[in-house]
Design goal:
This is ABC transporter ATP-binding protein. Residues 29-252 form the ABC transporter domain. The chain is an alpha/beta fold. It has helices spanning 67-74, 92-97, 116-126, 133-139, 155-166, 185-200, 212-218, 236-243, 258-262, 292-301, 316-328, 333-337, and strands at residues 2-10, 13-21, 29-38, 41-51, 56-60, 82-87, 101-104, 173-177, 204-208, 221-226, 229-234, 246-252, 267-273, 283-289, 307-313. The chain has 12 helices and 15 strands. Strand 8 (173-177), helix 6 (185-200) and strand 9 (204-208) form a beta-alpha-beta unit. Bound molecules: adenosine-5'-triphosphate. Adenosine-5'-triphosphate (ATP) binds at residues 38, 41, 43, 61, 63-69.
């Protein structure tokens, strides 16, 4: 909090006005109109983004959307062509030197010829605010791997060791690029349990993932990147609502004219399975519509008698597909200009 005192001399008397302002918290991460291209490929385009203290944020996007490039810029591993990136109000390099950032990246092998505990101890000793070794091993779920040689680890175990290295110090920001790739279901559960603990201690967590259920379950904010831009930014519920579409499922006992179904209003997709409905006969129809009321109303107008009718919102996965495919259908500014 900042207090500003203003003293005004008027008619020989001093008037003191005290104004109290609440200082805006310094964002943990700030991207200001950042651009990054590799030759002709525009990987990050006019990216504006702020992360606030304590947020757990998922970065989603199809292959090539710019997720890894964004994380590389954030960590100072790449330099923007224009715009600026800051962490905790300073440069990425400075924030990392101060021990504020832990990262778990996709690339880069682990040092070989050492035991897991030796590698983790080294990372801990290099950190300005290293955590106790036993605690690091326990939170990463690798206590039983402590004496294993690093080159004898499975892919999923390696990922857990990478996580231990990323959390070897008391970081304020943890950055994870597809952290659970190669982990089985149980290792994933343990991993996210550990991650939650980190978030509950007030740390900001940013992770890129292709597992949409992870984003849905873990993140309190989801950022969808596409073609290097932010396509959607909000809670998972907001992203689902933003995609707008509803899913309509029903069974039909009688044969159906597919062309008539395709003519239903507000349709974004339609599939008819003739292999028998859930009830054992007929066919199951699955529709995505951006106006479920209009679609269902018209369905009755076709003389259809749907059974087991269900109308529901989209899951994050379908919302993600709806959002990104809608954008794929829209030409970019550069394409329009051609
Ligand atoms: N070093 C590089 N040289 C040339 N092009 C690159 C380089 N790194 C990334 N790209 C390109 O930049 C774009 C963004 O890549 P990036 O790896 O950031 O995407 P991503 O969202 O992380 O993808 P994925 O989900 O496949 O990991 C892609 O078109 C990619 O081919």
């Amino acid at each position: 909090m900042t207090t500003t005192e203003t003293t005004t001399a008027a008619t020989g008397a001093a008037t003191t006005a005290t104004a109290t302002h609440r200082a805006a918290p310094v964002p943990v991460v700030s991207f200001r109109q950042v651009n990054k291209s590799y030759g002709a490929v525009r990987a990050v385009a006019d990216l504006r983004l702020e992360l606030n203290p304590g947020e757990t944020v998922a970065l989603l996007g199809p292959n090539g959307a710019g997720k890894s490039s964004t994380l590389d810029l954030l960590l100072g591993l790449r330099t923007p062509d224009s715009g600026s990136v800051s962490l905790f109000g300073t440069t990425p390099q400075r924030a990392i030197e101060q021990g504020k950032v832990g990262a778990m990246l996709q690339s880069g092998g682990l040092m070989e010829g050492v035991k897991v505990k030796e590698l983790v101890r080294l990372a801990r000793d290099l950190h300005p605010r290293g955590r106790p070794l036993d605690e690091i091993l326990a939170t990463a779920g690798i206590t039983d791997l402590a004496d294993r040689m690093v080159d004898k680890l499975s892919g999923g175990q390696e990922q857990r060791v990478r996580f231990a290295l990323a959390t070897a110090g008391a970081n304020d920001l943890i950055v994870l690029d597809e952290p659970t790739t190669g982990m089985d279901v149980s290792a994933r559960r343990t991993f996210w349990g550990a991650m939650r603990q980190q978030a509950q201690q007030g740390r900001t967590v940013l992770f890129a993932t292709h597992y949409l259920e992870e984003a849905d379950e873990i993140a309190d904010r989801v950022i969808v990147l596409h073609r290097g831009r932010v396509l959607a930014d909000g809670t998972a519920a907001e992203i689902k609502a933003r995609a707008g579409a509803r899913r309509i499922t029903f069974d039909l006992a009688e044969p159906v004219d597919h062309t008539a179904l395709h003519g239903l209003p507000a349709l974004t997709s339609l599939s008819v399975s003739d292999r028998g409905s859930a009830a054992g006969a007929g066919r199951t129809v699955r529709i995505q519509s951006h106006d479920a009321d209009a679609t269902v109303h018209a369905l009755y107008g076709l003389g259809c008698y749907p059974h087991n009718l269900e109308v529901s919102g989209l899951g994050l996965e379908q919302a993600f597909i709806a959002l990104t495919t809608a954008t794929d259908a829209t030409p970019t500014t550069e394409e329009t200009a051609r």
